[in-house]
Amino acid sequence: MGFGISTTRILAWTALWATLLPPLALAGGAMPAVEAGTGLRLLEELQSVIADLAERVKPSVVNVLPVQGPSRSKDAPQERMPNVPGSGSGVIIDAQGYILTNNHVVGDAAEVEVRLSDKTKFIAQVVGKDPDTDLAVLKVTTDRALPYAIFGDSGEVKVGQWALAVGNPFGLDRTVTLGVVSGMGRENMNLSRYENFIQTDASINPGNSGGPLFNVHGEVIGINTAIINFAQGIGFAIPSNMAKQVFQQLVARGKVIRGWLGVGIQPVTAELANKFGVAEGQGVLVNEVFENDPAARAGIKPGDIITKVDGKPVDTPNVLSRLIAGIEPGAAASIEVVRDGKRQVLSVSLSERKENVIVASVPPSRTEVKLGIDVQDLTAELAEKFKLKDSKGVLIAKVDQGSIAQAEGLREGDLIKEVNRHEVASVSEFSTAVSKVKRGETVLLRVLRETRAFYVVLKPTEK
């Protein structure tokens, strides 16, 4: 077993405690023995608390390794090579042998080897996996109660509070590292679909994946899942509230069922915010509403800005997706939208999430250049050629090289559905709408590309 806390970090904490203690120096520079002893006792008590915490939580942490060769029996662990690729950590969640780990630690395996702190080995069955959060649940069969950890409330975690990471980095069983929570709500890491990571400087290395991040009460506040290569002191953990919800569903159903709203969405850029009368980054823009889905039935429309879900603020597409996914299908969600500058709240009864979630991604705006698009009326043949699901609109026939249209991601075959929030069904209607734009103003287009819709803001060519 290993119990390592950085000497540098201990010295730093010692210095911090010294600054927090009352001034002890006498006029001659000497320190009273009783006062010095008090400071030392405080440090020893702090050290004792950390050491006791580590000893208390380590038995709940397991080593997870791939099974090597054909399985001989459910109870006989297989031979393995040390430090095999794909090894990781896990945490026992109840006495009956349910274990939580990362999906990427398990991979495609149906069973894995699990080694406990007392060196006992089991072949664990994979109960369920959720790639969208990178979590998996294992189950070992045993006739004795196992040491287990309990979930804490990650919603109460604060930046600056202490965190204890336990895992098996590089095959070093039950290594303990101590640090602080250095960030909350980290997303856009491209590690999983629903990201809301806790960032910590408690050392996390390969092999820590799937291991727990504890608070000072010994409660699991996160599941360690990733590090940034070549960066020191930057690790990420899946928050315990998300992990608990996924764990419960995987145990009960073997899969995770999530809510589905039925909209295409995109971020609110500065240009879009100006067009829709909201602050930049306030809410997310609905660029498409799918027929017969919950949003359509509730009256949500393209051009609405979704700002809250059940009272929780929405500022990125990832946040909206995560909030909706966390609601059970069939439940009613309270969705606040801004429509034409006015706020309203709609009650939406969610359905079950489909596999192909659509989130339009539009390139960021660039500097003003020529508009540079040629358009033509849409025909049935052209709609079939460009796989368009709609039969009304104006087709982009050409996009000039170096134009603002190209910079904003437009391309041949895109179908323009709206100009400045007004529908256009022909080239003449498009030309009329564009002609109403005054010098210096921008044009808001709603565009359909095959089955996806999105908004884009363009600067027209000055005459």
Features:
disordered N terminus; 3 domains; 6-stranded antiparallel β-barrel; elongated; Pdz3 Domain; Thrombin, subunit H; about 475 residues
SSE layout and pairing:
Layout lengths: L6 H14 L12 H25 L3 E6 L21 E5 L5 E5 H4 L4 E5 L5 E10 L4 E5 L22 E6 L7 E12 L10 E4 L11 E3 L5 E8 L7 E5 H14 L5 E2 L2 E5 L2 H7 L7 E6 L4 H5 L6 E5 L2 E2 L3 H9 L6 E8 L2 E8 L1 E2 L20 E5 L2 H6 L8 E6 L4 H4 L7 E5 L2 E2 L3 H9 L7 E7 L2 E7 L5
Structure write-up:
The protein is an alpha+beta fold and 463 residues long. The protein folds into three domains: 1-10 and 32-256, Thrombin, subunit H (Beta Barrel); 259-352, Pdz3 Domain, CATH 2.30.42; 373-458, PDZ domain (Pdz3 Domain, Roll). It has ten helices and 26 strands. It has helices at 7-20, 33-57, 103-106, 240-253, 270-276, 294-298, 317-325, 380-385, 404-407, 427-435, and strands at 61-66, 88-92, 98-102, 111-115, 121-130, 135-139, 162-167, 175-186, 197-200, 212-214, 220-227, 235-239, 259-260, 263-267, 284-289, 305-309, 312-313, 332-339, 342-349, 351-352, 373-377, 394-399, 415-419, 422-423, 443-449, 452-458. A six-stranded antiparallel beta barrel has the order 1-2-3-6-5-4. Strands 7-8-9-12-11-10 form a six-stranded antiparallel β-barrel. The protein is elongated.
